[in-house]
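Quarterly update, task 2.4: zinc ion-bound model.
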Amino acid sequence: MKNTHRKRRSAWIDVTFSIAIIALTVSAIYLISQTTKNEASSLPKKKQAAASVVIDTIDSNYPGIKIITATSNDAYIPFAIQYPQSLHSPFNEAISKYITIAKQNYLTTMEENKKTSSKFTGELNISFETLSHHSGSYSFVLVNSSSTGAENGTTEIRSFHLNPETGESFTIADVLGRDPKNLETLSTLVREAIYNDPLLADYLFPEEVHIQTEPIWANFDNFAITDESLILYFDEYELAAGAVGPPIIAIPLIDINSLLSDRFQLLTEDTDEFAITKDPIKEENTATPSKDKESSSNQGNSDTTEDGTEGSTEEVDNGIKQIALTFDDGPDPKVTIQILETLNKYDAKATFFMLGSRVEYYPEIAKKVQEAGHELGNHTWNHPDLTKAGIAKVRNEINETSSIIENVTGQKVTAFRPPYGAVNKTVRSQTNLPVVLWDVDTLDWKYRDPNQLLAHVKGATKDGSIILMHDIHQSTADGLDAVLAYLQSEGYTFVTVSELE
Ligand code: ZN
């Protein structure tokens, strides 16, 4: 017994020892391999791991645009990077690519420098400015300043462009209608402006100025357009001495209005003309309000009957005046919420025609719209002109959007509004939802002015009207209270589009 016991115990000890030795060996091999790996791996990686990098995302003041911030407090290689991201991947990828390369260049150079002398601390700051134009187009101007050693730092300016509604980018060629003659005129104007700029006067390299302003589209790649001017950015050291930094030239739009493509032209008093070129379909529908409301004989009647004479229709009677407020292109985390609060204040129900892409981004806001008792409408996934899309795309745009709205809110989508009011037989054949357009266009997307909202509604609204607004513009949210106060004082009740029709 004793023997067996001892024997068993010693066997148990043997096994334990063997396991322990194997474990120790494996750990040792692992540790050695890790150390070797670390030494062999690129230095920037090691450095990055040691520093604390903080990445943060916040909403910007511009609908659909978020600001990403990445900072590192590394004592030797610090950086602070800020850049925009949108709902559209091509735009996001272009910016991310630029940021990644800029950051990598900086880190690599600093690690190289460290091998020779590490007494200079580096610096990388990338920030950006958003410049908007009344067409709804944004120019994002990224300013990339870095220094990697004893010599002066460098500043590079790069622009990115986006129409956040469509996701499309635009270039200087788009701004100038892709017309080479316009490019030549711009080239001449920019050259003049450079020579007349007192800040640049003493520092110019005339040969370089000539080369950099030759009428080649690529020479004017870096630009921003605002309601006042077309701004062109040139590289540092390129056409003037480094002392002046990257030259920036602003050409007033009023001087080049005739060169601009329609959507970039200045707003004039004669806004109708502008509106027709900007969005012909939208205007066409405004002009012929009942054309597309095939299902609503009611609309035709109420068009011709002012207050009191609605007795002839069944739906609208007892002298009650009804109006349907509609909000397109949302949801938006700030604007939609403010609109919900205002609607609640007047106990008003409305219809929200949402974009699937934005519901995916802001599901909790879509849910709040449903919880507040409003009607949910489909406005496609990505806001394309469906009359120019293939049948499969039309179907996807509509079905995917209904699905996500219904998944997120648990409520059925009961109306469809095609982007730009653009609809034809093919589009209609792809959905059973009633197609709902509008007869009062507040043009809130164009004016972005809270006071303008009431002015437009006052002039155009009648019993049975469907009013078009957008819950992505702050000005719409700000102007809504006055609109509801006015309509209520005029005896209107606020209903959804389905209740109206
Ligand atoms: Zn829309």
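Highlight for this quarter: The first strand starts at residue 53 and ends at 59.
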